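Key result, reporting period 2: structure in, sequence out.
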């Protein structure tokens, strides 16, 4: 059975390899079958259209569940992850979906989940700079984590190409390091673990 992860953009799609690697390693450690994970983009952020997409995905006979992942910034920049997740749930409910859909959000964007590896990122680009705060998911929504990374790369006279840099930054990294200080990431990982029949992160 397949878990479908519906995401907002290319940055989230760049997470797929790391998420799959994480799930596969946990399954291997327990002698369990590997999870089937597919990632697809939202066709739009209109409630009704998104609800129809969620419902359509769930109608596939081999889909166990659909997990939605959305950034808080910029659509919900004056709110928080709870508001973004509520939007996703309301979209699903607008299409009559009441189960097998799980809503998650990155506050303020998925790059928050890269900030725990800030020192390694600095080494990667050859620039030393203090991290933008101690709580990655509370780096403000006016100048969210993606902007902080872009500025760091600009100082190093490099381009921050999200879809290339995210997998490169996460290469060889332990996702539980970020999950331990990023509650929204831990929530997403635990949903994927639960749906895969694997032990949850404490």
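The corresponding designed sequence is given below.
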């Amino acid at each position: 059975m397949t878990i479908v992860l519906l995401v907002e953009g290319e940055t989230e799609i760049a997470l797929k390899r790391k998420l799959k690697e994480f799930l596969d390693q946990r399954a291997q450690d327990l002698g369990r079958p590997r999870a089937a994970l597919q990632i697809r983009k939202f066709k739009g952020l209109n409630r009704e259209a998104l609800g129809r997409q969620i419902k359509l995905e769930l109608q596939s006979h081999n889909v166990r569940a659909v997990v939605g992942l959305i950034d808080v910034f910029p659509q919900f920049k004056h709110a928080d992850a709870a508001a973004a997740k509520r939007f996703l749930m309301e979209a699903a409910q607008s299409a009559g979906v009441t189960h097998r859909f799980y809503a998650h959000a990155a506050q303020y964007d998925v790059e928050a989940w890269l900030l725990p590896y800030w020192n390694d990122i600095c080494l990667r680009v050859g620039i030393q700079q203090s991290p933008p705060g101690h709580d990655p998911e509370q780096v403000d929504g006016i100048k969210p984590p993606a902007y902080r990374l872009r500025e760091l790369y600009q100082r190093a006279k490099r381009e921050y190409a999200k879809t290339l840099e995210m997998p490169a930054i996460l290469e060889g990294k332990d996702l539980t390091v970020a999950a331990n200080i990023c509650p929204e990431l831990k929530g997403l990982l635990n949903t994927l673990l639960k749906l895969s029949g694997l032990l949850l992160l404490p």
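The radius of gyration is 17 Å. The chain is about 45% helix and 15% strand. This case is discussed further under Risks and Mitigation.
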